[in-house]
Amino acid sequence: MAEENIYLTEKTQDGSISFKNLEFNESYHSIIGAYTEALHKHVLACKIVELAKSYDKKTINLRNIDNNAESSNSSEPIKILDVCFGLGYNSGVAIEKIWEINPEQRIEIIALESDIGIIQRILELEIPENYQDVHKKLTSLSKLAPKMEQGSEILKYEEEKLVITVFLDDARNSVKSLANNYFDAVFFDPFSPKSCPVLWTEEFIQDVVNTANTGAYISTYSSARIAKDGFANAGCELFEGPKLNRRNGGVLAKKI
Ligand SMILES: C[S@@+](CC[C@H](N)C(=O)[O-])C[C@H]1O[C@@H](n2cnc3c(N)ncnc32)[C@H](O)[C@@H]1O
Questions:
Q1: What total number of domains does the chain contain?
Q2: 36 ligand 1 Cβ < 6 A
Q3: Which of 179, 214, 235, 252 would be 241's cystine partner, CB 3.0–4.6 Å?
Q4: What whole-number distance in Å separates Cα of residue 159 and Cα of residue 166?
């Protein structure tokens, strides 16, 4: 019997493609735009541009100290945790914005995602012009995905300046294997607390916050009480993220 398709294609208002998941009965992005949401609610909210500039400065200083350093690739990577990778928009836009500041910047992304099926759908996206290069890297991940069974553990894309490692498991398990105080920024993007409550518990939020470095931002799109309480109780200072088309911006947490 043919497998039931649980992904319904949705074209969003900025022209980027997303899906609705029929099992969760929820869209992967809001109608305003998958690309727009990734850019504003996650990448800009987490101050990725400022991070890239500060890493660039560090690299220049390093080069001035050590004239023998061959290139900026001897520098530290920017480290990002992408919780609920899905179609990879948040990681993709982060890479794009970092390389606009410094094309030599190394980037390490760890992503958590339980559904290999949605990663396979990256191949079906129509992508805005400025996002094409990064999209090619994400499709490389997606091309690996069909060869893997649900239950495989890791999907990896690796090149000189970029490593993306996707842990294919329930994020509640994979988060436990990550280092503490490690990431410069965290994109926290599960389905809503109503349809995916297991990823909005205090325990999971605490585990995620533990992986972030002091001062790192953790972006969400949700302004629900459970999100506010979860991040406040996990030791974060709370801000309001960009509103875009909503009445309230989501919780933007900063680890203190
Ligand atoms: C709102 S979507 C993420 C959208 C994504 N950031 C993007 O750019 O396309 C939520 C994602 O959470 C994933 N998910 C649901 N339950 C999960 C779990 N227990 N562990 C890991 N991922 C889960 C879904 O498969 C889905 O891809």
A1: 1
A2: no
A3: 252
A4: 15
- Atom of ligand 1 at shortest range from CA of 26: 1
Nearest CA residue ID for atom 18, ligand 1: 170
Q: Is 90 in the pocket of ligand 1 (CB under 6 A)?
A: yes
Domain holding 78, by residue range, is: 7-255
Q: Is residue 178 part of a domain?
A: yes
Q: What is the CATH number of the domain that holds 45?
A: 3.40.50.150
CA 65 to centroid of ligand 1, rounded, Å: 43
Residue-level pLDDT, tens digit, the chain, 256 residues:
556 799 999 999 988 899 999 999 999 999 999 999 999 999 999 999 999 999 988 776 666 666 555 444 558 999 999 999 999 999 999 999 999 999 999 999 999 999 999 998 998 887 777 778 888 888 887 887 766 655 568 998 889 999 999 999 999 999 999 999 999 999 999 999 999 999 999 999 999 999 999 999 999 999 999 999 999 999 999 999 999 988 999 999 999 9
83 Cβ inside 6 Å of ligand 1:
no
Strand arrangement of the beta sheet that strand 17-21 belongs to: 7-11, 17-21, 26-27
How far apart are alpha carbons 79 and 68 in whole angstroms?
A: 25
167 contacts 174 by C-beta, under 8 angstroms: yes
112 lines ligand 1 (CB under 6 A): yes
